[in-house]
Amino acid sequence: MSSRKVVELFYDVVSPYSWLGFEIICRYRNVWNIELKLRPAFLGGVMQGSGNKPPGLVPNKFLYMTKDLDLLAKYCGVPLQPPSDVFEAMFQKGTLSAMRFVTAVQQQEKGGDKQVEQVSRELWRRIWSEDKDITEPASLSEAAKRAGLTDGEIQEVLKLSTSQEIKDKLKNTTEAALKYGAFGFP
């Protein structure tokens, strides 16, 4: 009898590569017999803490990345379409509020990460498939509703997402990724 390995997946919905990795590991977790622990974190903090630069800001990486993402999305069956203004979506708006929201969903969820998984997927879909906002409370609410949360749960999570407790939890998770040696996310 084999024991299940625990795999921690640190991710941020700003990253299309994270979405691809997230979908693959979710899809095959039972086949690989792993216990998946979702760890929503802030990629901007990891980049800053590690001294790394986002691939979109390095011209040669950006050229490669656009072709690579297209091929990977088709291969993995993920409906990835870059937003009309990638720079605005990734760097001006960012995902700090979205990742705090996901962290709050995880804080409220009892008995697993099913809601966290669904909300994360809906946020990725909004930004990387539908070219929609993921920073405003109404946008977060719409994603959560599509993920199956009730209006009451959404209001609770929205309120919790702005609390110091959640800000600290997201910061601690981001620091944990750095302690593991992260310099980006999959």
Structure report:
By secondary structure, the chain is mainly alpha-helical. The chain has one domain (5-180): Glutaredoxin (3-Layer(aba) Sandwich). It contains nine helices and two strands; from the N terminus they run E-H-E-H-H-H-H-H-H-H-H. Helix 1 (16-28) packs parallel to helix 3 (59-76) and helix 5 (96-108) packs across helix 9. The relative contact order is 0.19. The model has no long low-confidence stretch (mean pLDDT 94).
What global shape is seen?
globular
CATH architecture: 3-Layer(aba) Sandwich
How many structural domains in the coordinates?
1
CATH topology-level fold name: Glutaredoxin
Order of helices and strands, N to C? EHEHHHHHHHH
Question: Which strand order do you get reading across the main beta sheet?
Answer: 1-2
Query: What is the CA-CA span between the terminal residues?
Result: 30 Å
Based on DSSP secondary structure assignment, what is the total number of beta strands? 2
Structural class: mainly alpha
Question: Class in CATH?
Answer: Alpha Beta
Within CATH, the superfamily carries the name Glutaredoxin
The number of helical segments is: 9
